[in-house]
């Protein structure tokens, strides 16, 4: 279920580990969900958890080195352990694949069944991958039985499974989980081979949880630029801005983020399932700032925006309501956020940007302005193509009707702690 991957060929088809359905239902329900999205003209990205396996069918006695959890380059002792590394999948009985996993396919585990002790155990003769995140000295090991991506057998099996999964399910691309813990060059091989073998584009986005933009850029380079990454640095800026209020410098909101450094490779987001209250990476952007954050990712040119289900529909069990104005911003992206972008991030408490519009999209063009202070107005230009037009705030914060001058400029106002979105009255 979910993060605890046991058998990747079992999509809810076999009686294994106490049930036939997985956390996500039966195989038939799983495939029906994908078909339902396709029927609505939507593409489906599957969440790929390739880093580890859990729930082994048996143990093996192997030699191992206990490494320090705080620095996996520090060896504490050599020992013999009973490791959960034998995956035989008796419930599936070889259907789809007869490949079985043993200790040779893993680089480390976190539990010794013989002593009932938990630690970071690197299996004998194995090394941690050298091109991974540098946290803890080397962050190859995360949890469970860690796949050894230097093993040709492991790579061949992942190649076979990837092709099987694409053909079996018909998904359109991938969300790659925990990529900071997997040898970076592996993805250049795996995604490139699947794209070549299938002749499909297979868009992919990786979850590399780090606020260090330089580290994200290094991953992109070492993995051959084969996937985009979630812009964690930008999320952290949103979180800090919502926490600090007027003390946060809004002019620095996008500085040194992936959206600024490599905009074509950034998937921007405000919050997600990991950052919501109660989760391990909790960094929930406060409600007052969320409309501003969503205006940033939806109405600016850089990045591919990702909208969190919980922000669109609310999270009732946490008492969290939908983000006000989010549906309006989603519609505005389609109707107005076109053409040349001009940014006005020149004040710490009052920032904005304009989009000039596109002749192929009638009524497009817009001006967004937001403030984390007392509010005010900002002189901005939408372009001469909008000269003389009347603009209104479709987010409802301001009642004015603004007539743009001969250059398409006006003083666009906004209330404190709010965002206003100004568009042509005729297109509103």
First CA to last CA: what distance?
Answer: 46 Å
| Mean of residue pLDDT values | 97
Helical proportion, percent range = 10-25%
Runs with pLDDT <50, length 5+?
A: none
Question: What order do the SSEs take from the amino end to the carboxyl end, as H and E?
Answer: HEEEEEEEHEHEHEHHEHEHHEEEEEEEE
By CATH's scheme, which homologous superfamily of the largest domain applies?
A: Glycosidases
In the sheet with the most strands, the strands line up as: 1-8-9-10-11-12
Shape-level CATH architecture of the largest domain: Alpha-Beta Barrel
The assigned structural class equals alpha+beta
| CATH third-tier fold name of the largest domain | TIM Barrel
Beta-strand residue percentage: 15-25%
Largest sheet composition: 6 strands, parallel
Number of strands: 20
At the first level of CATH, what is the class of the largest domain?
Answer: Alpha Beta
Number of helices: 9
Helix and strand arrangement:
Blueprint (H helix, E strand, L loop, with lengths): L26 H13 L5 E4 L3 E2 L4 E10 L7 E12 L19 E7 L4 E7 L21 E3 L4 H18 L3 E4 L7 H15 L5 E3 L6 H10 L5 E3 L1 H13 L13 H4 L4 E4 L20 H10 L4 E3 L2 H5 L12 H10 L5 E4 L5 E6 L10 E6 L3 E7 L8 E4 L8 E2 L5 E7 L3 E6 L4
Parallel strand pairs: 1-8, 8-9, 9-10, 10-11, 11-12
Antiparallel strand pairs: 2-7, 3-4, 3-6, 5-6, 5-7, 13-14, 14-15, 15-20, 16-19, 17-18, 17-20
């Amino acid at each position: 279920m979910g993060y605890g991957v046991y058998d990747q060929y079992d999509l809810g088809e076999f009686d294994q580990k106490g049930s036939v359905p997985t956390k996500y239902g039966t195989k038939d329900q799983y495939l029906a969900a994908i078909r339902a999205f396709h029927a609505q003209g939507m593409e489906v990205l599957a969440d790929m958890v390739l880093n580890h396996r859990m729930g082994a069918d048996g143990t093996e006695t192997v030699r191992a080195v206990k490494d320090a959890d705080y620095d996996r380059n520090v060896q504490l002792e050599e020992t013999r352990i009973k490791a959960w590394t034998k995956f035989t999948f008796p419930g599936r009985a070889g259907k789809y694949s007869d490949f079985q996993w043993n200790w040779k396919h893993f680089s480390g585990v976190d539990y010794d069944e013989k002593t009932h002790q938990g630690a970071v155990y690197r299996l004998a003769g194995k090394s941690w991958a050298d091109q991974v995140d540098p946290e803890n000295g080397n962050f190859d090991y995360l949890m469970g039985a860690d796949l050894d991506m230097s093993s040709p057998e492991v790579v061949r099996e992942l190649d076979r499974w990837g092709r099987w999964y694409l053909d079996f399910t018909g998904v359109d691309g991938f969300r790659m989980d925990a990529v900071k813990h997997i040898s970076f060059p592996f993805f250049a091989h795996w995604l490139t081979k699947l794209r070549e073998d299938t002749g499909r584009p297979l868009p992919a986005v990786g979850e590399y949880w780090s606020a260090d933009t330089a580290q994200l850029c290094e991953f992109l380079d070492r993995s051959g630029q084969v996937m985009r990454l979630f812009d964690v640095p930008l999320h952290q800026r949103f979180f800090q801005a919502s926490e600090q209020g007027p003390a946060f410098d809004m002019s620095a909101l996008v500085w040194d983020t992936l959206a600024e450094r490599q905009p074509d490779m950034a998937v921007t987001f405000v919050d997600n399932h990991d950052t919501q209250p109660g989760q391990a990476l909790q960094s929930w952007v406060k409600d007052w700032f969320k409309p501003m954050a969503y205006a940033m990712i939806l109405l600016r040119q850089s990045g591919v925006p990702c909208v969190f289900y919980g922000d669109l529909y609310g999270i009732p069990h946490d008492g969290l309501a939908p983000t006000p104005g989010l549906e309006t911003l989603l519609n505005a992206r389609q109707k107005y956020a076109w053409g040349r972008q001009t940014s006005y991030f020149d004040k710490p408490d009052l920032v904005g940007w304009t989009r000039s519009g596109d002749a192929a999209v009638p009524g497009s063009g817009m001006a967004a302005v937001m403030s984390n202070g007392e509010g005010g107005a900002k002189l901005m230009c939408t372009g001469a193509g909008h000269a003389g037009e009347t603009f209104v705030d479709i987010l409802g914060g301001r009642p004015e009707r603004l007539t743009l001058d001969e250059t398409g400029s006006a003083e666009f106002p906004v209330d404190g702690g709010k965002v206003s979105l100004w568009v042509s009255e005729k297109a509103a």
